[in-house]
Amino acid sequence: RAGSAPRRPTGNAPAGNAAAGGSYDRPWRQNMQGKQGAAGPGGKPGDKGSAGEKAKKQYSGPDQELAAMLERDIVDQGTSVKWDDIAGLEEAKRVLNEALVLPMIMPDFFTGIRRPVKGVLLFGPPGTGKTMLAKAAATETSCTFFNVSSATLASKYRGESERMVRILFEMARDLAPSMIFIDEVDSLCSQRGTANEHEASRRVKTELLTQVDGVHGSEKDKEPGPDGEPPAPKHVFVLAATNFPWDIDEALRRRLEKRVYIPLPGQAQRLQLLKINLRDVAVAPDVNLEAVAGQMDGYSGDDITNVCRDAAMNGMRRLVAGKTPAEIKALREAGMTGGQEPITSDDFREALRKINPSVSKEDIKRHEEWLSVFGST
Ligand code: ADP
């Protein structure tokens, strides 16, 4: 099934509709109708009413606005990240493939003892590719991709986070197969301050746990359709990421059955990262990328991107140094661009001098300790 139909909403921005008319419409329903011919959870199967009608039946009052906001802020309109864009992390790619991608592509196989896991947790220092992995898994399956930052959810929808979580999972079920990526999950579901935890944040956690428990649909969802056709699988996969796994509530940790460590890149991966980052720029022949990678022990993927960006800027900096805007303009008109300057060893040296690793050794140690106790692939 996966890949056979556009799964992502492709219509106009419904948030605009909501703002203008106060009503929440779901234009993608029209795209989905031909394929599924089924109503949303609010309607009877086979009910072929208009998308808007069904949406109104399902969400009314403030829920309608929240659903529109969710779609605007959270439904990712199409990621183009591929597995090959991600350097290394082969084990993480394998786990995600088995836990998320394959169950979406061949759902019949993943039943009974082979039921898909409820959720996967990616943990590790910042800037190591967790978000990229989530996006690549979504691209691979063409599922509906909900890209949620817990910090946004907690701050932007303060007081409404609980309802937001419920609607988020409802929408995901409605548009299944879906993937809900919850970045910074620790801020939504931490065990910090358990003693005097705020009532509202306790309720958000409870709602999240309830929803994660129900991700693979109820028994009712498994009944055949009106014409006896097999039920469309309502798989909703939860993929969470955190830089602080030790802060995650135990109840949620248990539900995130696979817990995969995303470490800092090793030498081979750093070299691969350099090559990915420098795909579109010229590098001087004297630059030894292996040696550059060797000097970046302790750098995250994000740090390496920053080093490459800075080194790549140096050609342009050399070109414009000491010149007035008019002189630069004249140079441009003569066909000169900073991009033509190949990046030299000095450029890398200079960039490495300015940009230090952003992750501390203590942080790595803490992750490795957590991995040895709670890791699970
Ligand atoms: P995280 O979610 O772990 O904090 P991201 O996935 O957002 O990190 O990565 C941040 C940036 O770092 C990416 O946009 C990319 O430029 C770079 N990066 C990090 N890890 C990798 C990787 N393994 N392969 C390719 N690029 C990476």
Average the pLDDT over all residues and give the rounded result. 76
Number of distinct helices: 16
For the sheet with most strands, the description reads:
5 strands, parallel
Flag low-confidence runs.
Answer: 1-57
Helix content: 40-55%
Q: What topology, given as strand order, has the largest sheet?
A: 2-3-4-1-5
Cα-to-Cα separation, first versus last residue: 26 Å
Order of helices and strands: HHHHHEHEHHEHEHEHHHHHH
Key structural traits:
377 residues, alpha/beta, five-stranded parallel sheet, 16 helices, globular, disordered N terminus, binds adenosine-5'-diphosphate
Description of the molecule:
With 377 residues, this protein is α/β, with parallel strands linked by helices. 47% of the residues lie in helices and 7% in strands. It is built from 16 helices and five strands. The protein has helices at residues 14-21, 28-36, 51-58, 62-73, 90-105, 130-141, 150-156, 161-174, 199-213, 250-255, 267-277, 289-294, 301-320, 325-333, 345-354, 361-374, and strands spanning 119-123, 144-149, 178-183, 236-242, 258-261. A five-stranded parallel beta sheet has the order 2-3-4-1-5, sandwiched between helices. Strand 3, helix 9 (199-213) and strand 4 (236-242) form a beta-alpha-beta unit. The longest helix has 20 residues, at 301-320. The protein starts with 13 loop residues before the first helix and ends with a helix. The structure holds adenosine-5'-diphosphate (ADP).
